[in-house]
Amino acid sequence: MNRKVELLAPAGDLEKLKMAVIYGADAVYLAGTRFGLRTASDNFTPEEMTEGIAFCHEHGKKAYLTMNIIPHNKDIRDAREFLDDAVKAGIDAVIVSDPGTFNLVRNSHPELPIHISTQANTTNFESVKFWHQLGASRVVLARELSLEEIREIHESIPDGCELEVFVHGAMCISYSGRCLLSNYMAGRDSNMGDC
Predict the structure, then answer these.
(1) Is the pLDDT of residue 76 over 80?
(2) What is the dihedral of CA 102, 108, 110, 116, to 10 degrees?
(3) What is the DSSP string of 150-184?
């Protein structure tokens, strides 16, 4: 089955979002001021998120929200309100890596598609099937996989389960979702976006 490939681009701020859409991205992923791993980006205030999502939709494009940190208790307490605001703004899906965040999204907004972040370090077809059975609509595979491994995963999963792969960008010095070096060397927790 041939399906159209979705070109998905990062949107670190409102200007980058608009440029990605204008220059052909089918969708963008963005982070709010909390819960996303791209802390080096300016990211989106609630007002900017609303404007950016509206811009995407006006151009027939989608906007996905990253909530892919590895949260601690203090983080998860505020996550529902943050998610509620993003849903009101019209976000098309949420990207998560943590089972607790997955559970929060599934229970509070069961209609919202959930994408599993590359930070979940999904490297095999059984893990893809696991996430799909829980209700994930898409799994972003670990960046370390070869084309042959991606092909084998694609051939071994149920219809209707989407795969996403990075085709360009940074490669951590460690496996996706397992980076501890930054925290050890510089006291900056990569799993909280501070790499």
Answers:
(1) yes
(2) -20
(3) HHHHHHTS-TT-EEE---SS---SS-TT---HHHH
